[in-house]
Every structure is written in structure tokens, then in C-alpha cells.
Amino acid sequence: MKHLYPKYFPLLLLILSSHGLFAQSTLPLIRATSRQVSINDGGYLDKNTWNLSPKARPDIYTADRARHAKWVTFYTDIDSIRIKLRPGATFDFIILLNGKDSCYTEIASALPGRQWAVGGRVAGEVAERRRVTHDTIPFTLTDNSAICVKSIINDSVTLNLHFDVSSFGFVLLTPTYKKFRPITKVQLGPLSWTNPRVLSAPSTATGMDGRFGWDLFEGKCVEIDYDHHLLIVHSKRPGNLKGYTRSRLDFLRSYPCAKATIVVNKTAYTGDFMFDTGSDRALFLDSNWAVHQHFPGNLRVLSTSVMHDGAGRKYENKIVAVPLLTFDGYALKDIPSWLLGGRNPAGFSVNLFGNDLLKRFNMVLDFQNDRVYLKPNGLMNIPYKGNS
Questions:
Q1: Is residue 119 domain-resident?
Q2: Which of 53, 175, 280, 293 is 20 to 30 A away from residue 234, measured at CA?
């Protein structure tokens, strides 16, 4: 299966498709003598991260989220196949391992396909999707900037899970996961998931038993109201957004991101910034991005720090003072920023907004139209953690 770090495991959604095609003999076929396969997904190459499984029928690779057609290529040690994957589509093929084992494989879009049929069950599903709902989930904002939700597991156990926009699905700390598995139900306020996929990880936000990610709300709008400590999951974008600014919500490797610009001595440095509400810091600057942007290396150093990612790995970094950051029309000054000294925990080059910065805005994350709406809240002028 596709391998990423525990915090940044791949987006896994239910793909409503039939696998009857695998009974046909006309499926495309490529060959392999090694179980390890590399995948280029829309220009991002993961080397030897997919392991062939002859027993799976099919073994499904869920491609990174995209609203446009893109190329996905599978490379075995001796062969390859390249397909153009459209949103909502799937593509089935066979990898013949060592000339004898047929590995039935499917490449699936992370976005579900549209249902155009009418009548019966499908019509009922369409009607349900059209029903307007506003599900409210109360949370507390911890001293470490975690959006903490009291969650009920298996109808009986209450755990503290935090909402992490840079994560996927449900993840529990390893000891907690082992104690309560199998996990047959997770409830967040009025919302519940039956027999959800739950992964384990060695670490998460301070004081939390686990986390839940943005993809649980694909196709909906998530409002984060820090003033009233509420998560509101809207089936449609809320109509009253007076005072909010709007910008594009991009997705890199299925992670929600937005463009922002750092200004130093009147020179602008623009990049992609991932939304990481699981972090108690303000800003992280990727080392590769800094090199390619010729980002100044003489910013005032506030201190050095050690950061741990969701897999428990340790990173030593410099904390520098960024004089000005502009984001969606807002100007934020004197931000303590972690200049990453090694490999980015996301696994690719991207900057990060931590929740010490994001919590200063009430926001609506529109996963229907890929937009983000921001409005300054009562936390806007409190000191940053690195400056206090």
C-alpha cells in the first residue's frame, strides 16, 4: 500500500464503483519481478512506496485530491503504465508479478464520482446530499492551541481528539488505539461514523488522545469559530459571511494550502502554506523553498528549537523573526517562524501555517468550492508563543 508518515497518511475515501471489470481479460497488463512499485502522482514521485498484493482484488491506490485531470504513472522494476485520471474516475489494470501472480490494481480519484441516475436508492442519496444541515460541534482551545473535541468512541469511551486540517481520517495514540480496538463507532457532537478506518500514531498534539482530519468533511464547509469555540459543519456554504475575505484553497498532495507572501526589506517571497491546526507554533518555512526563493539568511534569530512530527521524529530548527506576512489581504507583523533545518515532516516542499497564527481568524473552509473565508477574531492581537 501507499506509505506516508503516520500523521500524513493518504486520503482514503469510499469509492462507489463496481469491480466487475476485473473478470475481463482485456484489462491493461504490465509486468514486474519486484513487489515494490514507484508512483508519480501529478508530478510528485514516491519511490518504491507501493507494495504489490496478489491477494487484494483489487488493491486500490487513491490518488491525491485534484479537481482537474492529471497523469498518474506506476513504475515497476521492468515496466510502467501511464494514465490520465479525471476527477471521480477509476482505472483498472493488472500487474503480473514474476510471470504468474496477477495483482489486480485500481487507481481511484480521491473525489467521488457524480451520481446521475434517478429513482430508487440513488435518488434517495441525492436528496440526502441536497438536504441543508448545520451540525455544531463544541470545542475547547487548549493552552497549546489545539482544537479539542470531546469525542465518544464505541458509544461508551470519551476521548480528547483535536481537529487537524493537515491530517486525514481518525488517528489515535498507539496505546489508546490498542486499548479500545476494534473501534466500531466515533461520534463528534451530533455526527457519527460507523466502522471508520482508524490508524495509530506515536504522538499527537499535547494532551490529546488522537486527532481527526479535514477529509471527513469532504464536499462540505467547516466553520471554525474561535470566538464561540464552535466547529460548524455546513452542508452548504453559509450565507452570512459579512466581514470575511475570500481566497482560493489549493490542495498539494491532498493537503489544504493557500498562497501567502513574506516581505523582507521590500522584497516579496511568495509560497504555498499548508494549514496545520495541529501545531502550536505560528509559522514554518521549508528549507528548500527558502533556497529556491533566495530567502534572506540574516533574519534576527530568536532562539533554536526542537520539533517533533506526527511520527515522533525530531527536527532541530532556528526560530527567526519574520517582519511581515501578507495573507488574504491581512498584514501580520513580527511573526516567530521556524526555519526548518532538515526534511519537511510533510514529506515534500511546502511552508506551514501553525495554529498559533490560524487561531487569530474565524474561518470557513469550503471543501465544495475550494475556498477559504477569513475574519479576524478576538485573538488577533495576543502575543505569539515564540515572542512571549
A1: no
A2: 280
